Amino acid sequence: MPANVKGIAESTREKLKTAISELEPFLNGHALPQLIGEDSAEARSFYGGLLSDLRHLLVFSEVAYEKLGTLLRRPNFDTEQAERVLYEVYHHAVNNFFYPKNECYSEDGRYAYTGQDAIRFRMKPVRAARDVVLNVSRVYEELRDDLAYYESDYLTQKRMQSQSK
């Protein structure tokens, strides 16, 4: 179990705020017809899927941001509830970013240690779409590293606790 759950919750909330501040203006300012350019079935499918995935990511991130805010404002910090929310951040927001439903982009681990962007797009996106995905990728990479415990160790610990009762 992480030693400083409250600290992790605070930093996670700040990182989610950063991601939200990138995603929301992009989604509010760009519509499918703007992004498509030439109206091809491939472009329509690509940008439709990308917008859908980013909207889901924004919703998951906003919900987690609000839950963490509520927990952090309480006079008595509930560590158990915070761990549940951090688990949700990992499994909903982080996984949703790295494994998008429409697969408009993916992470290529071969580039992770080269200093290059590890995100590869299914087709070449317009600059604004490319920039928003690459900008938030840094945030979700940090969250993935920070919350790695919640990938599987958290559930293992919960199972062991419930069996010992």
Give the number of DSSP strands.
2
Strand residue content: under 5%
How much helicity do the residues have?
55-70%
Distance between the termini: 18 Å
Rg from Cα: 18 Å
Order of helices and strands: HHHHEEHH
| Poorly predicted spans | none
For the biggest β-sheet, the strand order reads 1-2
Q: For the report, how would you describe the main beta sheet?
A: 2 strands, antiparallel
The averaged pLDDT comes out at: 89
- SS-derived structural category: mainly alpha
What is the overall number of helices?
6
Describe this structure in words.
A two-stranded antiparallel sheet has the order 1-2. The chain is built from six helices and two strands. With 165 residues, the chain is mostly helical. The protein has helices at residues 5-29, 32-36, 41-73, 79-98, 127-146, 153-163, and strands at 105-107, 119-121. The model has no long low-confidence stretch (mean pLDDT 89). The longest helix is centred in the middle third of the chain and has 33 residues, at 41-73.
Pick out its properties.
6 helices, 2 strands, single chain, mainly alpha, two-stranded antiparallel ribbon, 165 residues
The gist of it:
This protein has 165 residues and is mainly α.
Any chance you could write out the topology, listing elements then pairs?
Blueprint: H1 5-29, H2 32-36, H3 41-73, H4 79-98, E1 105-107, E2 119-121, H5 127-146, H6 153-163
Antiparallel strand pairs: 1-2
Helix pairs in contact: 1-3, 1-4, 1-5, 3-4, 4-5
